[in-house]
Each structure stands twice: as structure tokens, then as C-alpha cells.
Design brief:
By secondary structure, the chain is α+β, with helices and mostly antiparallel strands. Helices cover about 25% and strands about 20% of the residues. Among the domains are: about 100 residues, Immunoglobulins (Immunoglobulin-like, Sandwich), CATH 2.60.40; about 375 residues, TIM Barrel (Alpha-Beta Barrel), CATH 3.20.20. The chain has 17 helices and 28 strands. The strands form 6 sheets. The protein has an 8-stranded parallel beta sheet with strand order 18-17-16-15-12-11-20-19. Strands 2, 3, 6, 7, 8 and 9 form a 6-stranded antiparallel beta sheet that branches. Strand 8 and strand 9 form a beta hairpin. Helix 9 crosses helix 10 and helix 12 packs antiparallel against helix 13. The structure holds calcium ion (2 copies). One calcium ion (CA) binds next to loops. The site of one calcium ion has 7 residues, from loops.
């Protein structure tokens, strides 16, 4: 590497990691985001499309994020600020000294930092949290020692440690490398794949015939035969490892009744419970007695899925539906008082979006439809039953090593009283994680279906007491508008991201996505000629039951969707792949967006997209900067966005071109670069990115 590159890199790292001041831009964005909200958004996870006349996912056109604001600066959150600090130990006849302590989190009590002998002292340079006291101790030739010449303190376990009162520095470093103890999974490393069990793979055809439901409006609304044995087969065949994902979100495992139910709002189609969102909970006297969906297999099949996933290094999230039960539930029938009545102020109707109850103002009590009683968790007995049930799904799926399901996707979280969530988090700590060695983080990611109101999403996030994160619907909207639909500029996306990186807190792990089971398939939004309008959430429903779209023919659409995935895979959060999106599976609104997975006959467009996702996942897995680093926008314009991600020892540059023509991007380091996507070389600081491509550079 030529010397000028070294100096650029050093200077850049200082700028990238020394976020000392909040930029004026960030302040503007924070104010703008507070003003921007679309609370008139219903949740749609009940298996049917919403009523288009009342449904409003946000138009996506009202945000005042400006064009051409230039490279953004992202403020370093206080809890990530670090100062350089040196600790010494008097040298004697010993041959090794290791520094341990809480300076890097709990992990550095277990694996510390080797000290280097410099004359008459052993020395270690570390980074410590800004203005925070630390405790530390020395392992001297294998024995724990304190330095009596330095201040000491007695901890809660009566151990004597050295202590340091804390340090300030200006500008502070910004560090995301917080160290977990060995063997503890860092959820910032998670890449999630959403397995829609009924629509994924049929591993046990003997269950199928008995699971067909009479009276549904068509096969797409009925059980189609996918099951837990099928998921396990794909786990064992290495499908997920090969794709590069490491976490599976599987649909709700609760038993659902074998009945047909009318859709919501104006939808008169009849659906089955293939999606799992109609819990039939039928053990009112014993919340730890679990009733699973027999159409997906036996409870042992579910346990085998979990243990097989763990054996392959995969985490498992259950979709957890706790807003309502189906009216056939014996829990409901025996405990009416545990549920809000379908009535309000004397009127006999409190269905959401109806005459008397509104999605917005009655979110925590209105019924999604007249056969889905809404839990009332302000009732302590109801809450206690539900929380005990949730904990039992974790403990009863434990594998031989004592680890059960690794997390929950909390369905429609804005519709439950917050006490349910805080009580569940506390109970998981005492009843699950406290019994593990080492203790794992139980990941809870929430669904708040809102494309605009980030403050609403944030209310439920606090890794200590609530969710670890939520699905980032507002980010999804911006990625789709800029990279797929191309209705807004990449500069808009860059500005949004500059305001979004730490919006939910430095310790939040949001799940970032472009597709899910409530939205028309993303490939259509990336097509040369879009078949529906600009409304990401609602458009496409008109073709859910007739005139369903076929596969998108042109490679360009797959390239644009790959760009969308490239944004997910090179940014903070846990990227989500909705099953089938890795091959550009077509589909209009719900339920057409839940077609059975295609396992054979892939064309070259589909294999291109799948291979690109594999490549991006591989690059992400090899570069901690992409999973944990800080980010700074280097340049952006209508069609391009360039940014850098950096963490200790790893710096990666990302350049995205959404245009149908090659475009130059600027702001990269001068000199030779290597693109990890194409394995080709380039020369900074200005590089031409081919049409509809992403380049992920490291300095050569
Ligand atoms: Ca089956
Ligand atoms: Ca059932």
C-alpha cells in the first residue's frame, strides 16, 4: 500500500470514528421524523388482506427529507463512545500478564488483553467507555492479582479488583465491538430467513388430506402441505447454510382451528388458518401445556426442527401471536374476562376499523374481526397465563444442550398492552437465560406495521425490558422507493439512513427487509414496467385472487432487487430474506404473495439473484465492519450512494448504482481497490459502477 493511502486511511478513520458533533442535518432530520407519522395504519397479520378503503400504509411521499444535502454525518450514541486508556502492572520475574476486566463488556472478564513488557512495567492499551468507571484485575502467570499501588474496590461477590474512575476525551472514539463472552451469539451477526412453513416444503404427505379445510375460497387460502419435517429436510440438506443465512423465522406453531373464516373489512373471501394467526389455545388450566398445529407435524417434529437447526449453526425464531385467539379457543370460552369484549360504550361492535372502534385509537382492544377475541393483558391473570405459555414454548423446545427456540417475532406488538412485553422479558431472564451457561440473548423482534412513524416503533424497543428491535418498515419504504421503484433519489435514501442508523438506540438490533408475507412480492416493484402503482403496501391487492402476475421476465428487475438486498447486507441490523425472494418469486397481495416455494426449474435470472444473495451474505460474514461498524455517507446523488463502514481493523466501502447506465461514484480512497462482489480491481477515488450494480470495495 503506498504511503499516501496509509495516511488517507488513518485520517479517514479518525473522521469516521470520531463523531464528535451532531450535524445540522441530523438535527433537521430528527425534527422531521418526529413530525412524520402515519398512525392510521392497521396491522394485517391475520391472514387476509385489509380493506383497501380504510387501509393506509403511508404514501411515502410526505417525508421532507431533502435532495442533495451532501455526505451525512451520523452521531455516535453516548453508550458507544470510547477513550484510549493505558493500564500498567509492575514488572518482576513473571513471564506473562493478562489484563481482564469490564472495559469491553462482560466478555473481557473471560478473555482479556495480553500485556506487553516495556522496561519495568507490563502495559496494555485499551479503549474504555467514556466517563464510566471500570474494574479490572491481572492474570499473572495464571494467578489472579491486583496491583496494590492502584485504587481497589470490593465487588458484590466480595472480590477485590482494581478500579479506575473514568475518563473523558474529545473527540471520543465510536466503538461497536462490544465483546460478548465466548460462546454467546451476537444478534448483530444474524441474517434471518422467513420460512412460511405451510408454503415451504412438504416433508410428510400423510398429513395433507386431513388438513384441507372445507369452505375456503381457493387453494391459495388453504393448507398446502408444507410442514416442520419439510423445513428440517431443507436444514439438513444445507439449503440455509448454503444461502448464507443463520437464523430461521418460522410461522406460528400454535394449533389453529380447521375452519374457514371470512376476511377482514370488505373482504368476503374465506380463509383457513394455514398462516397460524388464529391461536386455538385450549389448555386454560395449564398454560405450560402446549397445543401445536398438527398439520405441521408432531411436537417432536417441531423439536427436531429446532435441534437440527442448532446442529447446523442456525438460530430459530417462532412467530409468536399473542394479540388475539380464535373464538373457538377454550381459554376464551372459559375466561371471557381475560379478553376485551366486542363492544364499546354500549355499542355491540368493536371490530377495528368499524363504526365504533378505530385501528388507531382502539389499537389495544379492538377485534381484528368478529371471530378473533382480543387479549386484555391489563388483566393480571390473563397476562400471567399468556406469559407462562410463551416461556413454555421456549423451555419445552430445548435440545440436548438445553437451548430451545432462540427468539420470538412478536406479532402486531402495538396491539398489546406493554405490560405483557415487560413481564415476558423479565420472566425469560429468570426462567430461561439465567439457567444457561453461557447465558444467551433471547432475541425479540417486533412487528409494528407502520412505514412512517419511527417514534411508534421505538416505543417498544429497549433490550433490557422490551424488544431488541423491530422490523424496519420505514427503511423498507425508502429502499424500495430509491432502489427498486426509482421514484425517489438515492440521496433521499442516504439522508434517511443518516438519520436512521442509531434512531432506535445503539443496542437495538432492527431487522431490515424488502419483503414479507403482508406485502406484494418485491420483484414486481423492481420491474421495468411496474404492474401497479406507488403504494407499496396496498397496491397489488386487486390481483391477489384473479389475473395473478407471472414471473418477471427481465434480468434488470432481479438486478434491482439484488441492489435492495445489497443495502440490507451492508448495513446495520439483521437482514431478512422472505422465502422465495431469493429467487424473485412472483405474487400480488396477500394471499398471492404466499405461493408455494419453487424448488426446481429455476431460470438464469433466478439463479443470478440467489447467487448474488449468497455472495453478499458471504461478504457480510467475513467483514465485521458490515455487521457492527459505524457508517458514513461519502457521496450520493439521484442514482448513486456511496458509504463506508468501519470498525477496528476492518473498513469496507459500498457503492450502489440504481441507474440503467454506468455511473461514476466519488469519495472512495485514492488508489487500488478490490471489489468483493465481482472480484475485479478498481482505482479510487472515483469509480464507475455498472448499471444496476453494487460494488463492495476494500483497499488493496
Ligand atoms: Ca405435509
Ligand atoms: Ca389445527
Amino acid at each position: 500500500m503506498p504511503p499516501f493511502l496509509t495516511s488517507f486511511s488513518a485520517r479517514f478513520r479518525k473522521e469516521a470514528r470520531g463523531f464528535a458533533a451532531v450535524s445540522a442535518l441530523a438535527g433537521v432530520l430528527a425534527a422531521a421524523s418526529a413530525a412524520c407519522g402515519s398512525s392510521d395504519v392497521e396491522n394485517r397479520d391475520y391472514g387476509q388482506p385489509p380493506d383497501p378503503s380504510t387501509f393506509n400504509p403511508g404514501s411515502g411521499s410526505s417525508d421532507p427529507y431533502g435532495y442533495g444535502q451532501g455526505p451525512g454525518k451520523v452521531e455516535c450514541p453516548a453508550e458507544l463512545k470510547r477513550c484510549e486508556h493505558t493500564i500498567t502492572y509492575p514488572a518482576g520475574s513473571e513471564t506473562s500478564v493478562e489484563l481482564r476486566g469490564d472495559f469491553g463488556g462482560p466478555g473481557t472478564w473471560e478473555v482479556g488483553k495480553p500485556m506487553v513488557r516495556k522496561g519495568n512495567v507490563w502495559s496494555a492499551d485499551i479503549q474504555i467507555p467514556l466517563s464510566t468507571p471500570i474494574q479490572y484485575k491481572f492474570v499473572v502467570d495464571g494467578e489472579w492479582k491486583v496491583d496494590p499501588a492502584q485504587p481497589t474496590i470490593t465487588d458484590a461477590n466480595d472480590n477485590t479488583n482494581n478500579t479506575f474512575a473514568g475518563k473523558t476525551c474529545e473527540p471520543a472514539l465510536c466503538e461497536e465491538e462490544g465483546q460478548l463472552p465466548p460462546g454467546v451469539f451476537d444478534w448483530r451477526d444474524s441474517v434471518i430467513y422467513f420460512v412460511f412453513v405451510d408454503r415451504f416444503f412438504n416433508g410428510n404427505t400423510s398429513l395433507d388430506a386431513a388438513c384441507r379445510v372445507n369452505g375456503v375460497s381457493g387453494a391459495i387460502a388453504d393448507y398446502q402441505g408444507g410442514d416442520w419435517a419439510g423445513v428440517t429436510q431443507k436444514i439438513n440438506a444445507g439449503y440455509f447454510n448454503d444461502l448464507g443465512v443463520n437464523t430461521l423465522w418460522i410461522t406460528v406453531p400454535f394449533d389453529n382451528p380447521a375452519v374457514a373464516g371470512r376476511g377482514v373489512g370488505g373482504d368476503d373471501k374465506r380463509y383457513s388458518g394455514y398462516h397460524g394467526y388464529w391461536p386455538k389455545l385450549d389448555t386454560p388450566n395449564d398454560p405450560t401445556s402446549l397445543s401445536h398445529e398438527s398439520c405441521f407435524g408432531s411436537f417432536d417434529d417441531l423439536k427436531t426442527l429446532v435441534s437440527s437447526a442448532h446442529a447446523k449453526g442456525l438460530k430459530v425464531l417462532f412467530d409468536y401471536a399473542m394479540v388475539h385467539v380464535h373464538s373457538s379457543s377454550t381459554v376464551y370460552q372459559q375466561h371471557n374476562d381475560w379478553f376485551w369484549p366486542n363492544s364499546k360504550n354500549g355499542s355491540p361492535d368493536c371490530v377495528c376499523g368499524g363504526q365504533f372502534c378505530k385501528w388507531e385509537t382502539d389499537a389495544e382492544r379492538c377485534w381484528f374481526t368478529d371471530y378473533l377475541p382480543h387479549w386484555n393483558y391489563t388483566n393480571a391473570a390473563a397476562r400471567s397465563w399468556s406469559v407462562a405459555n410463551a416461556v413454555a414454548w421456549i423451555t419445552k423446545t430445548q435440545d440436548a444442550s438445553g437451548i430451545g427456540v432462540d427468539g420470538f417475532r412478536a406479532d402486531a406488538i402495538k396491539h398489546v398492552d406493554i405490560s405483557w412485553l415487560t413481564e415476558l422479558r423479565a420472566k425469560i431472564k429468570t426462567d430461561v437465560t439465567a439457567k444457561q451457561t453461557p447465558q444467551q440473548r433471547f432475541y425479540m423482534v417486533g412487528e409494528t406495521y407502520d412505514f412512517g412513524n419511527r417514534d411508534l416503533l421505538k416505543q417498544y424497543i429497549d433490550p433490557a425490558t422490551k424488544l431488541d428491535g423491530q422490523f424496519d418498515f420505514p427503511l423498507r419504504r425508502h429502499i424500495v422507493e430509491a432502489a427498486l421503484m426509482r421514484t425517489r433519489s438515492m440521496s433521499d435514501l442516504a439522508a434517511f439512513m443518516d438519520s436512521n442508523d442509531y434512531f432506535y438506540g445503539a443496542n437495538a438490533v432492527m431487522s431490515t427487509f424488502v419483503g414479507n408475507h403482508d406485502l406484494p412480492r418485491a420483484i414486481h416493484l423492481a420491474a421495468n414496467n411496474r404492474i401497479w402503482g406507488d403504494d407499496q403496501g396496498a397496491d397489488g391487492k386487486d390481483r391477489a385472487w384473479q389475473n395473478q402476475p407471472g414471473a418477471v421476465g427481465e434480468l434488470e428487475a432481479y438486478e434491482r432487487l439484488a441492489n435492495g438486498f445489497a443495502i440490507l447486507f451492508t448495513n446495520r441490523g439483521a437482514p431478512l430474506v422472505y422465502y422465495g425472494d431469493e429467487i424473485g418469486l412472483p405474487g400480488a397481495g396477500d394471499p398471492d404473495n404466499r405461493r408455494f416455494m419453487q424448488w426446481s426449474g429455476l431460470n438464469s435470472n433466478q439463479t443470478f439473484l440467489r447467487d448474488r444473495i449468497k455472495k453478499l451474505a458471504d461478504i457480510r460474514s467475513k467483514h465485521p465492519a458490515l455487521r457492527r461498524g459505524t457508517r458514513q455517507t461519502l457521496s450520493s446523488d439521484k442514482d448513486t450512494w456511496t458509504y463506508v463502514r468501519a470498525t477496528t481493523g476492518d473498513t469496507v466501502y459500498v457503492a450502489i448504482n440504481r441507474s440503467d447506465a454506468p455511473k461514476p461514484v466519488s469519495g472512495l480512497p485514492a488508489g487500488p481497490l478490490e471489489d468483493l462482489v465481482s472480484a475485479q480491481s478498481a482505482n479510487g477515488p472515483t469509480v464507475t459502477v455498472p448499471a444496476r450494480q453494487t460494488r463492495v470495495f476494500v483497499v488493496k
